[in-house]
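A reminder from the course coordinator: this example appears on the midterm review sheet, so study it carefully.

Given structure:
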């Protein structure tokens, strides 16, 4: 019986440690003293957002999903775009680049959705396999379509775009080698170690819990 009690105690302590570890993980963010500019990226998946609460939680900027592919528009973009600004956050819009639509169609969708306004962050293009279509164009074909997209979107925005690229996507297509743009790279709890250049934005968490947002949210820092 005594051994069973010790086993039960061990399980209880392990459960407490796991809960504590999870709470630490979901509340963690990089040191604000080392990385003073931090913020979120969001889409309709976060639902209604209390932007003043997000600002109080330490965010000074937000990237907001605007479009995907050639015809999808995030149904919370306009609301998030206006309310983030009203709360005092700098804003940028991002586009999820699908592998089965032309760069021309996708640029047209983004331009029709995102207003060209002063003092916004550079537009961002999201390049990843997760959630994308099944098409896998050749590297040459994909780079050509991305270049077309960038040419049109950058002319609209009046500034260079930033590339959000996941590691497996870059390993397959070597986008960061071919396209000289600032990089937004992902490394959960540690700085990313891929890409042809050092990161400009680091996505440090994909599930931070904070006031103002229901559930987990992506948390990012800008290089000082």
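Designed residues:
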């Amino acid at each position: 019986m005594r051994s069973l009690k010790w086993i039960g105690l061990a399980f209880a302590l392990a459960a407490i440690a796991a809960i504590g570890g999870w709470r630490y993980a979901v509340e963690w963010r990089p040191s604000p003293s080392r990385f003073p500019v931090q913020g979120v990226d969001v889409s309709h998946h976060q639902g209604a957002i209390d932007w003043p609460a997000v600002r109080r939680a330490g965010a000074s900027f937000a990237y907001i999903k605007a479009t995907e592919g050639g015809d999808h528009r995030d149904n919370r973009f306009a609301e998030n775009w206006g309310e983030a600004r009203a709360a005092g956050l700098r804003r940028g819009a991002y586009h999820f680049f699908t592998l089965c639509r032309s760069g021309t169609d996708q640029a047209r969708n983004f331009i029709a959705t995102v207003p060209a306004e002063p003092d916004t962050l550079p537009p961002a293009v999201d390049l990843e396999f997760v959630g994308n279509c099944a098409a896998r164009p050749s590297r040459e074909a994909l780079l050509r379509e991305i270049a077309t997209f960038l040419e049109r979107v950058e002319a609209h925005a009046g500034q260079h775009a930033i590339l959000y690229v996941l590691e497996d996507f870059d390993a397959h297509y070597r986008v960061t080698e071919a396209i000289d743009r600032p990089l937004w790279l992902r490394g959960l709890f540690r700085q990313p170690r891929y890409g042809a250049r050092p990161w400009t934005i680091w996505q440090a968490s994909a599930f931070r819990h904070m006031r103002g947002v229901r559930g987990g949210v992506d948390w990012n820092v800008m290089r000082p």
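Residues 1-30 form one domain. The longest strand covers residues 61-68.
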